[in-house]
Amino acid sequence: MAGDQLTADPAPRRSRGRIALRVAAIYLGARLITTLFLFLAAELSGFQSRMGADAGVGDTVVAWDGTWYWLVAISGYPSSLPLSDSGQVAENAWAFLPLYPYLAHAVALPFGGQWGTGAVIVSLIAGYGASLALYSLLRIRLDEVATLWAVAFFASGPIAALFQIGYAESLNLFWLFCALWCVVRRRYGWLYPLIPLMAFTRPGVLAFSLFLALFGIWRWFHRTREPLRGAEITHIIALGLLAAVAGFAWQFIAGWVTGDPDAYLATELAWRRNWVPGDPSFAPFEPFFAGVSFWFETIWRLPLALGYALAGAGVLLMGAALAFLPQVRRLGVEIRLWSASYLVYLLLVFFPQSSIFRLLVPLSPLWGAFAVPRSRVWRVGVLLVCLIGQWWWIYNMYALGNSTWQVP
């Protein structure tokens, strides 16, 4: 498959400084635009918004989940699960992994201990690191111009506000892109620290375990094209098991501290009750099917069969794009297998709701496919769509806040 062939080493030492500066220019320009959007959203924030009528840009840092990360940093995790008035497990800090909030707290200490300041610094630096790592990952198979455009799409995308607010996504993306680069370059040793870092930053490392399993199978069937040595087999198996263990580690920690083996799962289900009242349960794929039923039958008043048909068609289209679309195939088998693994992970565990756009961010290496066409009109058009989508998300999440996703 021609799309899977590696290009020559794209970054000789003398050009790395130039590349870092170009990526920095793209990233800083995107952050200025995002800051303007956040300022406008704060100005438009009303009494119905979560931030209130007198909000400022600083309020966006600790809005929504930023408040939970701040709470983790200053209060830690509860030793017993809080209960709602109905006696069910209430929303609590166990839903949020510890690395980002504690790192932001440590960074904030020289700046008066203001957690929000540390959060912005960590998110900004990690976002730039993620942009550089994405460049290095995509440049393996794309030319420099296309790769820089992909970085511009990534830095300006619909959810790009995450790079400068109190969310863990930018830090997790940095670990993830570095990990994918390691797999592409067969630098397996670095994955042993990267996998636990991912596991304690954001949920989703189980998808990386599935990715390594699929990658190992692919390597086995293509071992005549690229020799598969015993040491590589050992690394792939060991790293896949490490990712699986790390993916379940937080659940065991939550259960051990609280004395409730289901502490983490019960905490996650508490958020679903914001959408579907009652006592939800969990089984693989059940959240996805429950979400289709909720949106089509309860909210949109449409036939459930239509919802299943459209959802099935969407899954088939995404699978076909990853398997056959030439622009996607240009990115290489590793990115395609990661994207497929992560989508399967979401189908297994995610109840579709307002967080869906944010949870798709780990698919960001696919921005490379949008950058493959050489048409300047196409590339500028994609960038404009990214910026329009970014303003839409910021306006709805911060200017409108609670009033946007209110369930009737």
From TrEMBL:
Keyword Cytoplasm in annotation: no
- The source's domain of life comes to Bacteria
Q: Which keywords appear in this protein's UniProt record, sorted alphabetically?
A: Membrane, Transmembrane, Transmembrane helix
- Name listed for the protein in its UniProt record: Integral membrane protein
Q: Does the keyword Transmembrane helix apply?
A: yes
Q: Where are the transmembrane segments?
A: 20-42, 115-138, 145-167, 200-221, 233-253, 305-325, 337-357, 377-395
Source organism per UniProt:
Microbacterium sp. LWS13-1.2
